[in-house]
Write a structure and sequence with these properties.
Elements lengths: L5 E6 L3 E6 L4 E7 L10 E3 L5 E5 L4 E6 L15 E2 L3 E4 L9
Parallel strand pairs: 3-7
Antiparallel strand pairs: 1-2, 2-3, 4-5, 5-6, 6-8
Amino acid sequence: MPGEDKVLISSNDSRLRLYDLKDHSLTCKYKGCANSSSQIRASFNHDGRFIICGSEDHFCYMWKTYHDFSKFSSGLRRDRSDYFERFKVGQARSEER
């Protein structure tokens, strides 16, 4: 994320993990996408407010990186984000000439 010492890691267990490089702690785990056999890259948008990632289920997923936790119940875990938006991605067509 811009201005922060963090690293975003995608893995084949359908999770994205954000780690703090200063103390090697897990900042947040992002769930929702489906990646079991492919390594699909995730990245931040230009100002670090969102993470975007493709998925094997033909959707593109987006998560917020910052939340106002005062709006949620006290039982919410701050190290997990199950809240995402997604949109269907079409398959590119090739034309032979």
